[in-house]
């Protein structure tokens, strides 16, 4: 009699403990499967050029990954299901944000609870992810050092692979290329893969030649994001460069004895242009055109070394006379102002500068690279501070600034990623300089009050693709 009573009471109790534990294990494994499937579904939104195709791809990816992540017959499980249309939902009701939910189902047979005629139990697990739309300004170096190091072709293919990781019609992308001059080759838009001349096509046509005007290129990338004005999306600048900055766009004050005949009225009289430094030496040279007419037939139209178009191409200026031999002449200028036309502080304390008469001293060659590095560093800092476009421009430079940066207002929360290629023979970027521009946590000047970015080094041309892939993964992880 005691045995019979024990069988009636004890077996269900023991069975509940054993079968309950088994169900808990199954539930944990199924939850892991749907968690991974939800992430895969979010990545699936990048496949396809129209919304309906992207949603279908996301649903199929979610359903497939549940099956891939959950082993068949795991703890005697049968009938694992995840219907792509009913169990994977894509909610686009919130502006610039998509919520994806994935539910998986599994039928688990019982072992001991059959005693009470419970032969199986259904286990369900649900996971949700939120993918923010991504707005990216790709700011891409096309300087001559890339060609001389054999890195131009690998860079172009790696950048094309990066662009293809994002969702045409959902994400927005701009392409800004820079060397001595800069140009917005693709104004920000969501048809970057399907446009008549797509971003991958533009990247493929790049020819690498010229210097490195980093500060202006950063501002042009920021200007594209400001014009789009989508603060609820993830706004990103991706800067790729293989060299230290070598150019700043300034209004140069002329000496009383300068022969420049078409200068702007002062006092002092001045001309505008990109004042460059050499890559392989601390030396000032050339006042060149800050803009070009874009990519055409595989190269920058008109070349990249063009004497400034301001003031009739420097008419009468000593530096512009027989420019190829006079490019290092500085006698026209009193010095370089401590602020460029965008309001970047060229004497911000990052690199040491010496002044003469209130201007950056042209007689001290160490000032050449120092001022350009300070300019790029301050440009990135102002962008992260959500400084309004041209708000910090000097009074005599506002027209030059607004001619290049065409939008108004500001945008907060911009994240800056930097890929630095370190194989240039001369003037390779310094890790600390790149970390500062990204506000990487490793930076000597990390600011926790600003958005945190990431610097990714690429030691050789063979490492460029992996660096772009790492940045794409990081961006998409934040977007989720």
Tell me what you see in this structure.
The chain has 480 residues and is of the alpha/beta class. It has 2 domains: 2-132, no CATH class; 134-246 and 368-479, 3-Layer(aba) Sandwich (Rossmann fold). It has helices at 2-44, 51-69, 144-148, 152-163, 199-204, 214-228, 311-314, 323-326, 367-384, 398-404, 431-438, 464-479, and strands at residues 78-81, 88-91, 97-109, 120-132, 134-141, 172-178, 182-189, 234-241, 247-253, 270-277, 284-288, 295-296, 299-300, 355-356, 359-360, 415-421, 454-458. A 6-stranded mixed β-sheet has the order 7-6-5-8-16-17, sandwiched between helices. Strand 6 (172-178) and strand 7 (182-189) form a beta hairpin. It is elongated and about 120 Å long. The N and C termini lie far apart (62 Å). The mean pLDDT is 88.
Could you say what the CATH architecture of the largest domain is? 3-Layer(aba) Sandwich
Distance between the termini: 62 Å
Biggest sheet: strands, sense, closure?
A: 6 strands, mixed
The amount of helix comes to 25-40%
Q: Which stretches are low in confidence, meaning pLDDT under 50 for 5 or more residues running? A: none
Please give the CATH class of the largest domain: Alpha Beta
Number of helices: 12
């Amino acid at each position: 009699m005691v045995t019979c009573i024990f069988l009636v009471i004890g077996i269900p109790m023991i069975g509940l403990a054993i079968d309950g534990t088994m169900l808990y294990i199954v539930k944990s494994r199924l939850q892991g499967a749907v968690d991974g499937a939800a992430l895969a579904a979010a990545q699936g939104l990048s496949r396809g050029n129209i919304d309906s195709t992207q949603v279908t791809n996301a649903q199929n990816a979610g359903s497939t990954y549940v099956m891939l992540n959950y082993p068949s017959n795991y703890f005697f499980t049968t009938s694992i299901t995840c219907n792509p249309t009913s169990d994977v939902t894509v909610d686009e009701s919130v502006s610039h944000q998509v919520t994806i939910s994935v539910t998986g189902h599994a039928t688990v047979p019982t072992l001991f609870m059959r005693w009470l005629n419970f032969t199986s139990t259904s286990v369900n697990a649900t996971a949700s992810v939120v993918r923010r739309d991504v707005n990216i300004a790709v700011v891409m170096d096309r300087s001559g050092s890339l060609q001389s190091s054999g890195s131009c072709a690998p860079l172009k293919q790696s950048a094309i692979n990066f662009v293809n990781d994002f969702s045409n019609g959902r994400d927005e992308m701009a392409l800004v290329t820079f060397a001595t001059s800069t140009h917005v080759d693709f104004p920000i838009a969501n048809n970057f893969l399907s446009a008549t001349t797509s971003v991958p096509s533009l990247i493929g046509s790049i020819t690498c030649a010229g210097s490195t005007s980093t500060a202006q290129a950063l501002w042009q990338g920021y200007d594209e994001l400001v014009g789009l004005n989508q603060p609820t999306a993830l706004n990103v600048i991706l800067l790729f460069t293989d060299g230290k900055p070598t150019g700043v766009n300034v209004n140069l004050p002329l000496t009383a004895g300068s022969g420049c005949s078409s200068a702007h009225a002062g006092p002092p009289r001045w001309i505008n242009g990109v004042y460059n430094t050499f890559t392989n030496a601390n030396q000032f040279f050339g006042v060149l055109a800050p803009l070009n007419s874009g990519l055409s037939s595989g190269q920058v139209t008109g070349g990249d070394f063009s004497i400034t178009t301001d003031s009739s191409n420097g008419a009468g200026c000593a530096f512009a006379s027989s420019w190829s031999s006079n490019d290092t002449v500085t006698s026209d200028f009193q010095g370089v102002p401590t602020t460029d036309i965008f309001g970047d502080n060229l004497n911000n304390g990052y690199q040491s500068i010496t002044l003469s008469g209130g201007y950056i001293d042209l007689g001290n060659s160490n000032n050449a690279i120092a001022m350009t590095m300070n300019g790029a560093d301050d440009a990135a800092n102002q962008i992260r501070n959500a400084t309004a476009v041209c708000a910090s421009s000097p009074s005599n430079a506002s027209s030059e600034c607004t001619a290049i940066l065409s939008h108004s207002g500001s945008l907060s929360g911009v994240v800056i990623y930097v890929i630095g290629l370190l194989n240039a023979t001369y003037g390779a970027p310094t890790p600390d300089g790149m970390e500062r521009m990204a506000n990487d946590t490793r930076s000597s000047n990390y600011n926790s009050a600003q958005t945190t970015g990431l610097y990714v080094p690429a030691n050789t041309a063979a490492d460029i693709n992996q660096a772009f892939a790492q940045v794409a993964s990081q961006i998409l992880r934040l977007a989720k």
